[in-house]
Write the structure tokens for this entry.
Amino acid sequence: MTDANRLVLHGSFTSSSTYKPMLFLALGGLPFSFRTVNLKIGVQKQPAHLAINRYGQVPVLQHRGLTLVMSNVILDYLARATGKFEGASEQDRWRAREWLSWEADAIQNIARVRHFSRFRTVDPAVMAHFRPLAEAALNFMEQSLAGRDWLVGDTCTIADIGCWGRMVFMAEGGLSLDNRPHAAAWRDRLMAMPGFALPYDLIPKKDAEFG
């Protein structure tokens, strides 16, 4: 495999956005290189990183001469490029991407609650606004998974990886699946897949090579 063909993911240890594509790569058993971006000291805002991600964020995926940013765009690309975690039909493939779009709007509120709980103090009114939205997103997941193993079709797709990848830090915001049995069973199915790991076990703090 040439350097251009090797997947290179730039990301951060504490980032759910990084976790989503990294979980895809781990579940897919794909070789890749990881390049750490230290958000704590502001590496994401430095010129070298802004040259590959003008938004000053993580993650970034480089592959075959392409540079892609935004975690759900990266998931879309990985599914297309590798054929893994795609829906079985064209309808399912589009439905999986509908879930990614919904996740960026609704489950993002779970990430906000976690961020405000752990990394940034905000006015209680701000938390009072976002926490019900986060709970509503979890409730929608619970309803959607009633009678289903996966969000789309009969197997794990980028819809599941994308939604779980953003939800994963929910406990740090005081949120849980304890009273949501369908969503909890779905989480357990994901966790039982070969290659699965939680973020702090999966994402290294230093540059690393996988596979």
